[in-house]
């Protein structure tokens, strides 16, 4: 459910008309709905009512300060994967004791800053990283609270680039070696073993892989207890999918029920790290049609947005619905078109053989749906295209939460070595 709807024939974000926004902000731009963000967070969090659970929003999905603050105000914690993300989360008001630092490789400086900030937990993903964290913590006279990320060797049945729980993936420590590594960690002076972490992949549309992984995790916790290693926190990662193209992913309540069934009896604190589910359908990318080009084989609708603004279609063959901002277009005769951007690559395609109005004109606006997660955060400046602005809407109000970068600012980042002067 989201708050992007046609009102009087025109697409609105909550109470704000998209064409009016486009006039003010220019195109392309990202537009997020506060009501949708809040609703998704609340629905997800309430699936764990009665459990001792913290929702640590995976800020990699959308880390704009305004988005983070919106969620922090509802009590969200944050899952971060770099010192940059950690600073973003803390600056937006997320309490340090609700910040989890994940990721396959943390630099010394990142470990130091995390220990200084006294965040809740650092998730360790390899023995060398564990040894390094131990050294850093001892050097600082601290004990690092850690979870070890375990790779359960479970196929999440999602796109290969976002599956993380299989033996061939780079993530975590193989579950077959878990006990040995926990023993090692428990003996380290700078390490306080508090948890166990898992994240098997993203955009899962079925509960079965989660169930398999969490059952494995539960067995491990019991084995560790037998060894005298007490696990207090289970970090179950994110991964619950959303509907991009008619998928019917399990609802948060069903996911919550499965969590209860698989790990509820362990009496542990539970951390959840949803990203896409919170932000994905809370955002759209608005773009203007620049040209309509009738080729020999195809009609191309050339937008002013490109793959640098939204990389998901070309990177993962991801489907994003594309709709006209003027509702009449939905009712007019439709044409099958390829929707593309102006970047000089064939992969700069948002959708192939899409139904859009036959009379779509240059100047018309389209909305690329479900772009709130892994959209703006993955944008680049390829082809010297400045970063796209982001707008947050709340009821009838809007705010530009990241202004459009100017091309001069972008070029101004370069430095000329003195020998070229
Ligand atoms: N926790 C960890 C440790 C993660 O690595 C991720 C995502 C999440 C939580 C959040 O997962 P989510 O609930 O959003 O599925 N760029 C890709 C998605 C990459 C996900 C990476 N890890 C995409 O656009 O589909």
Q: Bound compounds, please?
A: ligand LLP
Major β-sheet annotation: 9 strands, mixed
CATH class of the largest domain: Alpha Beta
Helix content: 25-40%
What's the rounded overall pLDDT mean?
A: 96
Q: Looking at the structure, what is the overall shape?
A: globular
Distance between the termini: 56 Å
Question: What name does CATH use for the topology of the largest domain?
Answer: TIM Barrel
The total of beta strands comes to 21
Looking at CATH, the homologous superfamily of the largest domain is Alanine racemase
What low-confidence regions span 5 or more consecutive residues with pLDDT below 50? none
User: How many domains in all?
Assistant: 2
Number of helices: 13
- SS strand fraction: 25-35%
SS content category: alpha/beta
User: What is the CA-atom radius of gyration, in angstroms?
Assistant: 23 Å
| Overall CATH architecture of the largest domain | Alpha-Beta Barrel
GO molecular function, one term: pyridoxal phosphate binding
Protein name: Diaminopimelate decarboxylase
Family: Belongs to the Orn/Lys/Arg decarboxylase class-II family. LysA subfamily.
Domain Orn/DAP/Arg decarboxylase 2 C-terminal: 29-372
